[in-house]
């Protein structure tokens, strides 16, 4: 490996120009008491071929199933080849935040297009350039709601992804927010419970489809929030928005979610992107970068980072957020994927997920398994009772090459025998038949 | 003018076929079904690829050329790391898969953590934070948990931050529910000890410090600063933004810091991606370890597991164990250097001092010292004498084929130009940059209009940022002009970079 260019002769010349005798002398301002006086005790340097072998060893230690029905927030959707091709363009990959628009029109325009796509999907007016993941953008949205309403309590549906709830609670401590969870009733959230609890709340956060895969009565939940002057915050799945109504169209003030489903590999949990969109009135409270359209001196259209007086580098302790580095490259991947799909492809992806999930429900129930929430409409994921501890069922299925889902007992009491099964457009009826045989021999 | 992808759209085109298994599609309840389809672009695949390829040609990355954006550490991103992160055993791994099936991923995370512990000289690590600023928030929440348990949570409400700090530091203080105590920088670029001492007492929770600072200077009084804080029962947070200066040379833990974040996208070469992703692991002293986010990667013999059973943990700041693909790249980068990481920092510091030696007399130099991995010049004289600002210098540098340095930051240096060459650059590149910077000085005298009209020959000239903020257009309007509520314009001398 050589990632530096300096020859010995270069070093000599440069030291002479600086007027010092050695590289050591460049560090003379570091007090002797805090200097590190031995070699770093880290593994030896590797040549590229050796490095490749070492990382291949680690990758091979992971056991990928033949077929996976594991979802619970991160999904095995197809990532088109064009996404990888675009992301490996060095001009995108190795640039940073577009502080200098004349050198950054490519990424600025791409973010503007991403913002447009997110607004279209969510039915809202403004989007930021991305947040860290689907969990942190939910916390961001709660903070917007606190600032917008002056209230210090948020309601979170218990049927929301547990990781999202955990992150919201962690952030809430810093924000000075109280988090109150609304239990689910038979797999979905009861709007009447929300209405009763929302009276002094800044926001009501729910997930659509929720963590169990069930469709919430989302318009009624939003109405319950709005009746109490709390902001309705929907946590949504981009891939569902070709078939499911946009949250902006049923009264939500903000919509957030995990973008991984659109354009990102699962990659053991990241890097991915969180998206955040809002009604126009909240634009000055949004966290993170926003790209706007403008013109140059000659009247030519161009794009810049805008409304930066919200941000930490200008507003410092009064900023709307501390976010700086975001997830632009992953959001770009999402934009490329959505551009390849178009409205028709997105709708068909949703329909295929629904059709295959329905087939899976039928196959599993035909073999005697029971759905946990049989009355509920679902999208691409559903909960099924497997007649024993779900963790044991997973272990047994894995031995046959199938990862059958997520053990809901990890997060919910009374669901130790429940398995959350995710069916994306990548699954086939044959694979589902195999799942049914493995779970109900 | 490049068309927006929405302007290239033609109804009925598509770029990707989706499997259609021939099964019935269940009906959705009317009130939940989408009424109007989203207006996503409709293009065939070749046109999608061409669109984004064209956009890429209107962008400048480290692959394109010299990118001395101070405090952002724009170093070479080895391509082998991209190939390794895309190995199916990493790329296709689900974060909730059983621990027995992800032993390679956990081993990688554990090994990465071990190197970070050695480089920082601290005891326990969490890889979870997604970026440096999230590491800051996480670290401050650890301080709160620590003082709460000691019964000092209500009493210790203040965090001390020098006036040279990144804006993320004060923003994180607010997000963590703390209050800010600013402290001045002295004439040598160190924290002003006389200003500091009376500000640190039993109400102080801690210090946040970047060392070397955003001025590119190592704080010569770091031991005295440590004594002030630890003497008052307060803790010290190290902003690792500038760790590229001191790997194997000086360790934050040995300087007295209790919490450190590391920007994996800076020092350890995760590509910056046009704005992200990053990685912001934190490493802490043993006393703070119980409060780290869950889960923690633990080694038991030759097996690795995730420890969730940590009752004092602050919780989670991000999903799963963190941005794993970033860990693959940074781990690969560290293994390429091995113990020679020290040489990486030495070359970064040598390159910076070389530029400083050749430019320090030509521009304003706020501090007459050797620098670390970056340095700050001022264009105040240039502005006074010729009306050429730091912004003008930045724009003119583009004409010479360089990305500009960070400008107008740190805030305490007027007309600041903050220059960080990194270890990547060859001497010829540095020499060419010096020539350009000196040429701009000559042009300022002879042809200032040339500079003020810069850049030349770019896809756009200087853009009207006031209009962008006053009439915000933040999405394509399709068939009508779509303007969001107005905001404040960005001040002309707002930081650009860092």
Summarize the structure in words.
The complex is a heterodimer of chains A (about 450) and B (about 500). Chain A is α/β, with parallel strands linked by helices. Chain A has 3 domains: about 10-60, no CATH class; about 65-80 and about 345-440, Aspartate Aminotransferase, domain 1; about 80-335, Aspartate Aminotransferase, domain 2 (3-Layer(aba) Sandwich). Chain A has helices at about 10-20, 50-60, 80-85, 90-95, 105-120, 135-150, 160-175, 190-195, 220-225, 310-315, 330-365, 390-400, 430-440, and strands at about 65-70, 125, 155, 180, 205-210, 230-235, 255-260, 275-280, 290-295, 300-305, 370, 380-385, 400-405, 405, 420. In chain A, the strands form 4 sheets. A 7-stranded mixed sheet of chain A has the order 2-8-7-6-5-3-4, with helices on both faces. Chain A has a 4-stranded antiparallel sheet with strand order 11-12-15-14, with helices on one face. In chain A, strand 5, helix 9 (about 220-225) and strand 6 (about 230-235) form a beta-alpha-beta unit. The longest helix of chain A has about 40 residues, at about 330-365. Chain A is globular and about 80 Å long. The termini of chain A are far apart. The mean pLDDT of chain A is about 95. Chain B is α/β, with parallel strands linked by helices and about 500 residues long. Among the domains of chain B are: about 1-60, no CATH class; about 85-340, Type I PLP-dependent aspartate aminotransferase-like (Major domain) (Aspartate Aminotransferase, domain 2), CATH 3.40.640.10. Chain B is about 35% helix and about 10% strand. In chain B, helix 2 (about 80-85) crosses helix 10, helix 4 (about 105-120) packs across helix 10 and helix 5 (about 130-150) crosses helix 6 (about 170-175). The mean pLDDT of chain B is about 95. Classes of the chains: A alpha/beta (about 450), B alpha/beta (about 500). Chains A and B meet through helix 1, helix 2, helix 3, helix 4 and helix 5 of A and helix 1, helix 2, helix 3, helix 4 and helix 5 of B.
């Amino acid at each position: 490996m050589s990632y530096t260019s300096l020859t010995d002769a270069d070093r000599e010349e440069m030291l002479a120009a600086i007027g010092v005798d050695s590289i050591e002398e460049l560090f003379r301002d570091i007090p002797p008491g805090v200097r590190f006086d031995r070699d770093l005790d880290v593994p030896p340097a590797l040549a590229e071929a050796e490095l490749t072998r070492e990382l291949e060893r680690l990758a091979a230690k992971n056991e990928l199933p033949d077929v996976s029905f594991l979802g619970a927030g991160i999904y095995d959707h197809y990532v088109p080849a064009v996404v990888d091709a675009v992301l490996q363009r060095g001009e995108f990959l190795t640039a940073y935040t577009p502080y200098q628009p004349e050198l950054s029109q490519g990424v600025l325009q791409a973010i503007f297009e991403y913002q447009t796509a997110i607004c279209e999907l969510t039915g809202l007016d403004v989007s930021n350039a991305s947040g860290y993941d689907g969990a942190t953008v939910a916390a961001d949205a709660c903070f917007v709601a606190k600032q917008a309403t002056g209230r210090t309590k948020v309601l979170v549906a218990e049927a929301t992804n547990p990781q999202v709830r955990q992150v919201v609670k962690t952030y809430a401590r810093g924000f000075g927010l109280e988090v109150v969870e609304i239990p689910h009733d038979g797999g979905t959230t009861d709007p009447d419970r929300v209405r009763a609890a929302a009276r002094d709340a800044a926001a009501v956060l729910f997930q659509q489809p929720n963590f169990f895969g069930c469709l919430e009565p989302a318009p009624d939940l939003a109405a319950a929030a709005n009746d109490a002057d709390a902001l309705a915050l929907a946590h949504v799945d981009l891939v569902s928005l070709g078939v499911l109504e946009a949250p902006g169209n049923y009264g939500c003030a903000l919509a957030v979610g995990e973008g991984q489903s659109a354009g990102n590999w699962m990659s053991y949990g990241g890097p991915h992107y969180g998206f955040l969109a809002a009604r126009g009135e909240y634009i000055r409270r949004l966290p993170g970068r926003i790209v706007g359209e403008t013109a140059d001196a000659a009247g030519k259209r161009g794009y810049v980072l805008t409304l930066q007086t919200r941000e930490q580098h200008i507003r410092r302790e009064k900023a709307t957020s501390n976010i700086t580095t975001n997830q632009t490259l992953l959001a770009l991947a999402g934009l490329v994927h959505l551009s390849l799909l178009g409205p028709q492809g997105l709708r068909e992806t949703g329909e295929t997920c629904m059709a295959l999930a329905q087939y899976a429900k039928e196959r599993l129930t035909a073999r005697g398994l029971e759905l946990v929430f049989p009355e509920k409409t679902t999208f691409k994921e559903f909960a099924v009772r497997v007649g024993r501890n779900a963790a044991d069922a997973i272990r047994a299925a894995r031995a046959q090459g199938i990862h059958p889902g997520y053990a809901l007992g990890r997060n919910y009491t009374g669901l130790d025998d429940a398995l959350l099964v995710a069916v994306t457009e990548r699954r086939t009826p044959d694979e589902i038949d195999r799942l049914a045989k493995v779970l109900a021999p | 003018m490049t068309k927006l992808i929405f302007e290239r759209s033609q109804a009925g085109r598509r770029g990707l076929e989706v499997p259609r298994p021939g099964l019935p599609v269940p009906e959705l309840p009317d009130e939940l079904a989408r009424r109007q389809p989203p207006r996503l672009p409709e293009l065939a695949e070749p046109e999608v690829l061409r669109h984004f390829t064209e956009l890429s040609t209107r962008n400048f990355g480290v692959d394109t050329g010299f990118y001395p954006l101070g405090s952002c550490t724009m170093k070479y991103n080895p391509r082998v790391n991209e190939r390794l992160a895309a190995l199916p055993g990493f790329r296709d791994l689900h974060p909730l898969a059983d621990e027995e099936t992800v032993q390679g991923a956990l081993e990688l995370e554990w090994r990465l953590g071990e190197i970070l512990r050695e480089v920082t000289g601290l005891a326990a690590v969490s890889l979870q934070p997604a970026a440096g600023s999230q590491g800051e928030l996480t670290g401050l929440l650890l301080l709160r948990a620590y003082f709460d348990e000691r019964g000092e949570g209500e009493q210790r409400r203040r965090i001390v931050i020098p006036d040279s700090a990144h804006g993320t530091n004060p923003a994180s203080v607010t997000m963590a529910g703390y209050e800010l105590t600013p402290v001045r920088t002295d004439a040598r670029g160190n924290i002003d000890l006389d200003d500091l001492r009376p500000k640190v007492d039993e109400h102080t929770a801690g210090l946040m410090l970047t060392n070397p600072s955003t001025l590119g200077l190592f704080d010569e009084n770091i031991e005295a600063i440590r004594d002030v804080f630890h003497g008052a029962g307060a803790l010290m947070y190290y902003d690792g933004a500038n760790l590229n200066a001191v790997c194997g040379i000086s360790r934050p833990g040995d300087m007295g810091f209790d919490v450190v974040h590391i920007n994996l996208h800076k020092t350890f070469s995760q590509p910056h991606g046009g704005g992200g992703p990053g990685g912001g692991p934190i490493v802490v002293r043993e006393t703070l370890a119980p409060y780290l986010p869950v889960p923690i990667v633990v080694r038991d013999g030759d097996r690795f597991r995730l420890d969730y059973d940590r009752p004092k943990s602050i919780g989670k700041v991000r999903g799963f164990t963190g941005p794993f693909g970033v860990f693959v790249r940074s781990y690969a980068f560290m293994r390429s250097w091995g113990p020679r990481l020290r040489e990486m920092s030495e070359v970064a510091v040598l390159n910076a001092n070389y530029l400083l030696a050749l430019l320090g007399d030509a521009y304003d130099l706020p501090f007459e010292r050797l620098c670390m991995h970056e340095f700050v010049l001022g264009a105040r004289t240039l502005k006074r004498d010729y009306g050429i600002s730091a912004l003008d210098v930045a724009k003119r540098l583009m004409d010479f084929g360089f990305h500009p340095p960070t400008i107008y930051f740190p805030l305490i240096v007027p007309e600041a130009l903050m220059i960080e060459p990194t270890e990547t650059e060859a001497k010829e590149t540095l020499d060419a940059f010096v020539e350009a910077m000196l040429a701009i000085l000559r042009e300022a005298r002879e042809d200032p209009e040339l500079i003020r009209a810069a850049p030349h020959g770019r896809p756009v000239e200087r853009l009207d940022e006031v209009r962008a903020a006053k009439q915000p257009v933040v999405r394509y309007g399709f068939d009508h002009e779509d303007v969001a509520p107005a905001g404040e314009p960005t001040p002309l001398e707002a930081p650009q970079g860092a």
